[in-house]
Design a protein that fits this description.
single chain; 46 residues; mainly alpha
Length: 46
């Protein structure tokens, strides 16, 4: 079975959308964790 150009673009496009969603989710989680760590430092740091 041979894929045409349009079908190949659909495969690549789907993977890109998932990768972009994972990257944005990771960045948001990191920022939330960094802000939370800054506002509520560990008790042993006091």
């Amino acid at each position: 079975m041979e894929l045409n150009h349009e079908e190949l673009n659909q495969i690549v496009g789907g993977g890109f959308k998932i990768g972009l969603a994972v990257a944005i989710g990771g960045l948001v989680s990191f920022l939330i964790g960094a802000i939370d760590g800054y506002l509520r430092p560990l008790k042993c740091n006091k």
